[in-house]
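Pipeline run #58 for the internal structure catalog. This entry was flagged by the ingest filter as a single-chain record with no existing model, so it goes straight to prediction. Upstream metadata was stripped on purpose; only the residue string is passed forward. Reviewer on rotation: M.T. Logging verbosity set to normal.
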Amino acid sequence: MAAKPARGAEAPRTIAENRKARHDYFIEEQFEAGLVLEGWEVKSLRDGRANLKEGYAVIRGTEAFLLGANFSPLPSASTHVQPDPVRPRKLLLNRRELNRLIGAVEREGYTLVPLSLYWKGGRAKVAIGLARGKKQHDKRASDRDRDWQRQKQRLLRKDQ
């Protein structure tokens, strides 16, 4: 009989991804944060009803919050709970990570953007990126580089 894998040993399963963030920002560093969720939010995440495109993270005092992320409720949500799909959700980070983020955002002018939302060990986690905004010419250069890499792969495949 095979041994049961340890808690948290399974590979993370992606719920939602924010592809626009990598287009609009240079991601300097990534952090993994837990989320404080209500019951209906967990159910909607299990159904894959999350959108991070308009989301961003802010630091208020000594706590971090995820704002603008849309977790649309299931139609069969509880009748006694009024779900708010875009409510602020508290991010769970350890003190050292939080102090690093506070310093980077307040002093160095970085932005916190959610990159992806996934399950890890039965718990919902969000990958937060410490990001600096791209200018329009940077976006064009990134698109040009990506297109060249794609073209190069096609040419290599064609030769083989």
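catalog note: The chain has one domain: 13-134.
catalog note: The CA atoms of residues 12 and 146 lie 27 Å apart.
status: ready for reviewer M.T.
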